[in-house]
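haha ok so turns out i had the wrong file open the whole time. this is the CORRECT one, sorry everyone. sequence first:
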Amino acid sequence: MVKGRSKSKSSKKGKTPSETTTLNLKQQLAQKRRAQRARKEVIQIITMTAAFGAIIGVLLALVVDPKAGAAAVAGLPCLVLSYKYPRKALWAFMIYMPFSGTIIYAIGNSPLLQLAKDGIYIPALIGLIQECKQERKPIIVAKSLMLPLGIVCASSLLTLLFANGAQQLLPPCSDLPGMRRGITCEDGQPILMGILGLKVFLGYIPLIFCAYYLIRSKKELLFLSRMFTVLAIICCSLAFIQYMMLKTGRCAGTQFRHGAALFKASLDARCFVGGSLLYSPQVGQIRLPGTFVAPWQWGWFLISNAFFSFATAFSDPSARWRSVGLGAMASVFVLA
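then structure:
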């Protein structure tokens, strides 16, 4: 009986090192197979969507414009991949946004390029919502936000209806005398401008939901802070080069203009990176856009990165990254 018990106890003991090594090898092989399958799936998706996009792109290039055709070739794979891999798409969206102004005006100020970021954001948002529905996770992450968001949406819709809608019903300004232009007439497309403004104002509120489900672990939180720390250093370096080019006269800015133009940011004064800028040092007006479209966006980027760089500098477990965070803090303070 004693021997039987000892045998049963020995059989219940932990696995031998050889068995654990075999399991580790099996796990590694399984991970490699999964990675290979995922890689093949990505390649297949890119190939199929690129081929379909090329067909549409050729048609658009012949009928509409070559730029529209190129946008279709590049945009269709982006849409599908963003929907298929929403988390990676959201990371790509956050990396793209600080450079969006530079990319838009470097390629050409096209309305399609202005909407390029939505080609990443909207499919990723839909994909993440579908994922949460499958896993039965709540879409509304904070019910206390419903009332203020409802008030904001209602007031915005009322403004669209009674302000832009009323302007749309006015007679065209071209049919009225010059003295009455812009007062009792319709100039442009007010309702379309209102819809665009509504999209800009409310369209990115779902990022609250995206951020809630994007950061799932400490590792991802560290990646977020480190990513924005690196972005802060890169963008601040480019903005410093922009300032030095204006300072040394390689870019004119707005300093040689007259009257009210000395106090207004202009896209014609664009220098190196970013969009419209204001550089009139003789009247104390310097508003640089950095890598963004407008100076106010650059200001909010610096404010937000002050928090991220501070978190990296004083809370990151790696000494190397803490040093990088201190460098990012210095860059933000210099460019602020």
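Strands lie at 278-280, 285-287.
again sry for the mixup
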